[in-house]
Amino acid sequence: MLCEDTVLDASCIGEIVRRGYTRIPVYKENDRNHIITLLFVKDLALLNPDDRFTVKTVCEWNRHKLRLVDDDTSLHSMLEEFKMGEYHLAVVQCAIDGEVLGIITLEDIVEEILQAEIIDETDIVIDNKYRAKRKFNGVSQLRKIREFDQKCKYISQSMAKVAIQWIQGIHEIFNPSVIDPRAMANLVHKNVHKVRCSSEAAKQLSIADRHWQLEVWGSQQRQLAD
Prior knowledge:
single chain, alpha/beta, CBS-domain, three-stranded mixed beta sheet, 8 helices, 10 strands, 21% strand
């Protein structure tokens, strides 16, 4: 679980990925019995760790539905709820005092029906009883993604369009009336290798509505914007 005041910096996001859970309960005011929402790992996909958003900020934006159930609820009832598709995880609390006892998922119910552990390719823990962890061979998938990103030579066409729009907004010399759009596209294609979203870069450029920072590499680096 995570406290709503937790800062989602690089170390925190790395720990979340390392643990391997896709949905994380979020509690309020350092009270683990006061669970208020859920954080999905996919919510972190476009998050810049340097922005240091809190868990509360991300959860308020996504607003995932949280289901609280009493510990005397039948599995058949929970299965019927999960089949509706609105959520596949619920927080289990004591029917008497409201103390949080744990969580239940659709996978838990299916495992009870099959009387066997279900292990998929993303699971880190492969035995919930003895907390046995999967042994990985070779380089992690996250590291492979980073290495692939570093080797990419060109940005996508959609990112190239964003870069062109940003450059044209910086200086009028890059407007279509001055430079041919095909020449501009060729310039960006050969010199811009990465587009990174950064609110800090926008502040440095003193442009309130611009949130794109270009990183330019090449044998002859060009300064596209002063």
